[in-house]
Every structure is written in structure tokens, then in C-alpha cells.
Write a structure and sequence with these properties.
Number of helices: 10
Largest sheet: 5 strands, parallel
Strand content: 5-15%
CATH architecture of the largest domain: 3-Layer(aba) Sandwich
Shape: globular
Radius of gyration: 21 Å
Order of helices and strands: HEHEHHEHHEHEHEEHEH
Number of strands: 8
Number of domains: 2
Distance between the termini: 19 Å
CATH class of the largest domain: Alpha Beta
CATH topology of the largest domain: Rossmann fold
Length: 263
């Protein structure tokens, strides 16, 4: 009986490996526009054919424009709810990236960012997708204008991002901690293609790690000794899976847990 269940479980796990690619949406502002085209290649280099990347990103976007409350003059696309655009892709993994650079000074404001970002995260998490947050790289202080923007980015927006990642137990890609010397095209954007390829590679590594707990796999129950973990806790846990664990379908787990009727 047990061998039969394990055989079925093995077939289901093998089926997962042959399933449709994991959907990834890279979303944000012009920095995402920059690295986004390189993300698919970076993922294919690590896990060929396993991921399908889409982008929902526009240059100049701040939190209010992302929410569709005001128009983005750089895209001439009217009021656009970018959260709805992301969720329309039905993603397994979402990268919320670079919202904050424009809010530091250029078009938005920190107060709007602080108010709206949690609502974006709430909607993304409610969809069941894995959310990856990123701390944007520094703005080069080449002029007093950019210096003031960098001060707000470092002193106000960056702590908010880290706080949300901690409170919500979300993976954080810390781009501020990396040395980007020589890779800036201007005071904000990375060079093409070197800087953008490097950034895509950083995200690809984090996506591959997060994909171990993507939502398709969370449809199965993870059995460990001695506890039975829920799919959600397994999906959330950053701890690698024990070698002794295996997955069985919920129906089989229920069947096996049900006591046999005496005849």
C-alpha cells in the first residue's frame, strides 16, 4: 500500500517537472524596463525552459501612477492600474522592483509611496504568487537635485522596503549593497547591456530559489516526520526542504489518514 502511494507521488512530482513553465512578472519603473529584457535569458541559462517572463513596467512610474491614480506623462497611456496588469498574467512569482526611485523626488512623494505600496503587496500576496521585493541601487549624487533624491531614497524609502520585507517574510534583493561603480549609464540607470545583464542575473538567482515553493507545488501536501506542514507554510519557508521529505496529493493524504473500517 505504502509503496503504491509513494509510486503515485513520484509520478506526480515528475509531472510537476514537465508542467507548464513557472510564470514570472517583472514589474516596476524604468530600471525594470532596462533589466527586464535580459531576465528570460538569465533564467534560461540557469533552468532552461522552466520559466516564462513577462514585464509590466514603464519609465517614470511612481506609486500613484502604478495605482492608476494619475497619468504617467512618459507613456501617454492614460490612467492604468498596473497591479491589475500584473495579476492578469496569473503569475507564480512577482518581482516588485524599483518602485521608489521616482517617489524619492522625481515625480511622486514618499507619503504616497508609504500609503500605496502595502496595498500593492496585499493584492499580490492574495493572488497566491510569491513576491520578491528589491531595494533599488543608489542614485549617483552628480548634482544637488540627485543628491537630495538619493538622501530620500536611502533615508526614507529604503527603510520602508526593508520593513515590509521583514514584516511579510518576503525575499529581499538588496541592490544597494552591491558595488555598481562603472556600470551607470547616467545618475539612475545601468549601462546597456553590461549593467542590465548583471542586474538580471541577480534577480534570476533569487527567482530560481523562490521557485522551489511556487504555488503549483503548494497544491501538494508536504509530509515530514513528525509534523505535517501546511502547503502555505512550506511555500513561505525559506529553509531548504529536509532530504527525508516527500510530497503526496491531498486526496491520498486524506485517504491514508482515515482509519480503516472494521468488517
Amino acid at each position: 500500500m505504502v509503496r503504491g502511494i509513494l509510486a503515485v507521488a513520484a509520478l506526480l512530482v515528475a509531472g510537476e517537472a514537465r508542467a507548464a513553465p513557472i510564470k514570472v512578472v517583472a514589474t516596476g519603473d524604468s530600471l525594470t524596463v532596462g533589466y527586464g529584457p535580459f531576465l528570460q535569458a538569465a533564467l534560461d541559462a540557469r533552468r532552461p525552459g522552466r520559466f516564462e517572463v513577462s514585464r509590466v513596467a514603464r519609465g517614470g512610474t511612481d506609486a500613484r501612477e502604478y495605482a492608476g491614480l494619475i497619468e504617467n506623462p512618459q507613456c501617454a497611456c492614460g490612467l492604468t492600474d498596473m497591479v491589475a496588469e500584473v495579476l492578469a498574467w496569473d503569475p507564480d512569482i512577482i518581482i516588485v522592483f524599483m518602485l521608489g526611485t521616482n517617489d524619492s523626488s522625481f515625480t511622486g512623494g514618499v507619503e504616497y509611496y508609504e500609503e500605496l505600496m502595502p496595498t500593492f503587496l496585499d493584492q499580490f500576496e492574495a493572488s497566491g504568487a510569491r513576491v520578491i521585493l528589491a531595494a533599488p541601487p543608489p542614485i549617483l549624487t552628480t548634482t544637488p537635485y540627485y543628491a537630495a533624491a538619493e538622501a530620500r531614497l536611502a533615508g526614507e524609502i529604503d527603510p520602508l522596503i526593508r520593513g515590509w520585507a521583514t514584516e511579510r517574510n518576503l525575499p529581499l534583493v538588496d541592490l544597494r549593497a552591491r558595488d555598481w561603480t562603472g556600470l551607470y549609464h547616467d545618475s539612475v540607470h545601468m549601462t546597456h547591456p553590461e549593467g542590465r545583464e548583471i542586474m538580471a542575473g541577480i534577480f534570476a538567482e533569487r527567482v530560481v530559489r523562490a521557485s522551489r515553493f511556487h504555488r503549483r507545488r503548494a497544491r501538494l501536501l508536504r509530509i515530514t516526520a513528525p509534523a505535517l506542514d501546511s502547503p502555505r507554510s512550506a511555500f513561505r519557508s525559506p529553509v531548504p526542504e529536509p532530504a527525508s521529505s516527500f510530497w503526496i496529493p491531498a486526496a491520498l493524504a486524506t485517504c491514508c489518514a482515515r482509519p480503516r473500517r472494521r468488517r
